[in-house]
Design goal:
The protein is an alpha+beta fold and 118 residues long. A five-stranded antiparallel sheet has the order 6-3-2-1-7. The model has no long low-confidence stretch (mean pLDDT 81). It has a single domain, classed as SH3 type barrels (Roll), CATH 2.30.30.30. The N and C termini lie far apart (64 Å). It is 16% helix and 29% strand.
Amino acid sequence: MAIYRINRPRNAQASFHVKKNDEVVVLSGTQQGKRGKVLEVLRHRSRVIIEGVNMIKKSSRKSQQNPNGGILEREGPLHISKVMLAADYDSRKGATAAAPAAESESAKPAKKTAKGKK
C-alpha cells in the first residue's frame, strides 16, 4: 500500500481553505514563512503546490521537450494543513503586535503561591 493513501480524505471532493491562485504563507517545516501563489490543489492527497516553495530536483530522461535530459528543479507538494491564506496570516500578526507587552504584564494579577500559607 502506498503511503499517500493514508492521508486520503473521506470525500475526494472536499472543500479546502485555499484555492488555486490564492496567496498563502507556509506555517511550519523547513519552508516556514515563505509566501507564494497556489499553482495546484491535489484534493485526493490533501496537498498543495505553491509557486517557488519546496523546490525539489527531478531527474528527467531525454525527450522532445527536453532533448538533453538532466536534472530539473520544480515545486513539490506541501500538506494543506501547513499553509494559511496570506491575508488571514497578516491580520493575525497585526492583532498580536498591536497590544504592547508592558501594558499586558502590568494588568496581569499577581500569582498566589503556597509558600506564604501556614
